[in-house]
Specification:
mainly alpha, two-stranded antiparallel ribbon
């Protein structure tokens, strides 16, 4: 009995938190518990949602809200008028732990990784004439190998 009460209270708190978050976001289709709108993602439903809610609406991927912007003007208004809200990418455990790297990072981590990457690439010769000569030499060797394999040399 106690487990059922605990589960009911836990699910109710999750539901209330989602409802509180939904009030601050643009309108969108009602999400299902735990999976959000993941079960309803296809082109036809996306088109119907666009017609019903307009160019800006919210979808839920699990418990993560995703603001959908359709059209040039909506994207321009959001990125120029609300740049702070759109400045960072959401950090999920999968992206942070499994993928990581400069592509999925942002903020201070992104700046550090970018600085390190550029410094390393410059140390390896990126942007220098010597790199171009080295690439040309390697390309010529590769062409000779291909020609030998085809019996042209």
């Amino acid at each position: 009995m106690g487990i059922f009460v605990f589960l009911f209270v836990w699910i109710s708190l999750i539901f209330l938190n989602i409802q509180r978050a939904r009030r601050k976001l643009p309108p969108g289709p009602t999400p299902l518990p735990f999976i959000g709108n993941l079960g309803t993602l296809d082109f036809q439903i996306h088109h119907e949602t666009l017609l019903k809610y307009g160019n800006i609406y919210t979808l839920w991927l699990g418990r993560t809200p995703v603001i959908v912007l359709n059209g040039f003007q909506a994207v321009k208004d959001a990125l120029i008028g609300h740049a702070e809200e759109f400045a960072e990418r959401p950090i999920t455990p999968f992206l942070r732990d499994i993928v990581g790297g400069i592509i999925f990072s942002n903020g201070h981590t992104w700046k550090q990784q970018r600085r390190f990457s550029l410094m390393t690439l410059r140390n390896l010769g990126l942007g220098k004439k010597s790199l171009e000569a080295w690439i040309q030499e390697e390309a010529n060797c590769l062409i000779k190998i291909f020609a030998r394999q085809r019996g042209e040399i």
